[in-house]
Structures are given as C-alpha cells and as structure tokens.
Amino acid sequence: MIYTIIPTILFVLASVIPNNTISSDTKISKPTVYAKTLETTVEAKIETAYSNLHSKKFALPKLESFAVALKGYYSLKEKGLIKKDILTIIDFSMSSNTKRLWVINLITGDVLFNSLVAHGRNTGEEFASNFSNANESFKSSLGFYSTGEIYNGKHGMSLRLDGLEKGVNDNARARGVVMHAADYVSDSFIKNNHRLGRSQGCPAVPNELSKEIISMIKDKSCFFIYHPSRASKFGTKSLS
Q1: Secondary structure class of 24 (helix, strand, coil)
Q2: What pLDDT score does 86 carry?
Q3: How much is the CA Rg of the chain, to the nearest whole Å?
Q4: 20 to 30 A Cα–Cα from 161, which one of 154, 221, 226, 237?
Q5: Cα–Cα distance between 38 and 230 in angstroms, integer?
Q6: What is the structure's pLDDT at 43?
C-alpha cells in the first residue's frame, strides 16, 4: 500500500512547487544604459569658476593667472594649509602701473578688491622679472602663501605672510616680507615717476585700501603671486 501512495505524493508535490530552473533558451534581460555621465575636466571647472566671477566696478584677473591660482587653492585647502574661501592673486606679468592685485570671494564669485601693488626694488623697474627667496635681496618671491596675523609695524597695520613653497618663498616670514601700506603705491606716484614705487620685497598696497584688504584676507587665506616664468608645484588632484 505504501509503495502506491509515495509516487502519488511525489507527483502532487512536483505539481505544486514552482520550477526555478531557467531554460537554456531563456534570455536574461539587462537594464539598458541610456546615458553616461562624463567626468568634468579640470579645465572646464576652472572656466566655469572664471565665468562666474563678477564685479560691476573692477576688471577681472587674466584667466591664465586665475587658473594656476585656483588649482593651488584647492590643493592647499585639501591639505589644510589654508582655511578661508578668499583668494588673493597678484599678477606680476603685468605692468606695475596697472591694478594687478585681486581679492576674490570664491563662494560668491565677487571680486572684492582690485588694486595697485608694489614689487621689490631689485625685482625690476616697471615690470617684475627677477625673484628671490634670499635675505636682503630686496626682491619679491613668487608662489603660494598662507596669510598670517596682523601686527603694527613701521608701516602701521601690516600682515605677515608664510611662504608655502620650499626654496621659492619659505623665507618670507624670516625676511619680513609682509603686506603693508605705502605712499609710493599710488596713481600720483606713477604720474610723477612714470612707474609705481618699489618695496624691499613686500607686496605693498595703497594707504587707503590697506586696512580693508588686510582685514579681509588675514588668518590663513590663500595668497598667490603669479609670473609665467615658473609653474607651481601644487597640482589638480582635488579638482578632478
């Protein structure tokens, strides 16, 4: 009797339990990828940031200097060497008779200041061309800096600068290279002397703007002095 019941039970179970075996002829459909997101290039990001700069009363920096400055800014921010979203650019490829310093809010794209700025007396006449990191060279140093603290010196309210590129500007604090006000940084000096006055290596700015600029950029913002004669060591890793 039991031998006749078992086959019947097995038949019933086979008919109730679904068959999960997929036939070799069954095709598995895969989701179709309709679009692929392309990674934005570093150059595209820089151009976007540059196109978002705006000012009703100031000229914009050149794209060339802005691009190098922005790459360095992101690299330094990633390393924790700067804290603020404020970028200062000095373009020493330009005549000292032109406004070649910019202070930019990178969050809003606002150009906050565009000013005259001096270079060192041994760096050149109207144009800057010779640079040094050496003490008593009276030359400007290129590259990236982190802004330091405010102090009152012989030029009044001044701002210490810490050079971040070894062998290029890392002697800045020891040399006393700081931002300060100077009478010789003015349109009247240019008119009388056919060029801007020169410092002992400091990025000196006009008296009427010095306090505002210094107060804005103090305490670990990115400060960059550009010249096409050298490339910065800071890369683009954090932009890609």
Answers
A1: coil
A2: 98
A3: 31
A4: 237
A5: 32
A6: 84
Q: What is the 3-state secondary structure (H, E, C) of 156-216?
A: EEEEEEEECCCCCCCCHHHHCCEECECCCCCHHHHHHHCCCCCECCCCCECHHHHHHHHHH
Does the predicted model carry a pTM greater than 0.90?
no
Angle between helices 42-51 and 63-79 (to 10 degrees): 110
Q: What is the pLDDT of residues 54-68, one digit of tens each?
A: 998 999 999 999 999
Quickly list DSSP for 67-128.
HHHHHHHHHHHHHTS--SSEEEEEETTS-TTS--EEEEETTT-BEEEEE----BTTT-SSS-
Mean pLDDT, to the nearest integer, of 98-125? Answer: 98
The backbone torsions φ and ψ at residue 138, rounded to the nearest 5 degrees and listed phi first, read 55, 35
Query: How far is Cα 90 from Cα 63, in angstroms, rounded to an integer?
Result: 13
User: Residue 151's closest CA among 161, 136, 140, 163?
Assistant: 161
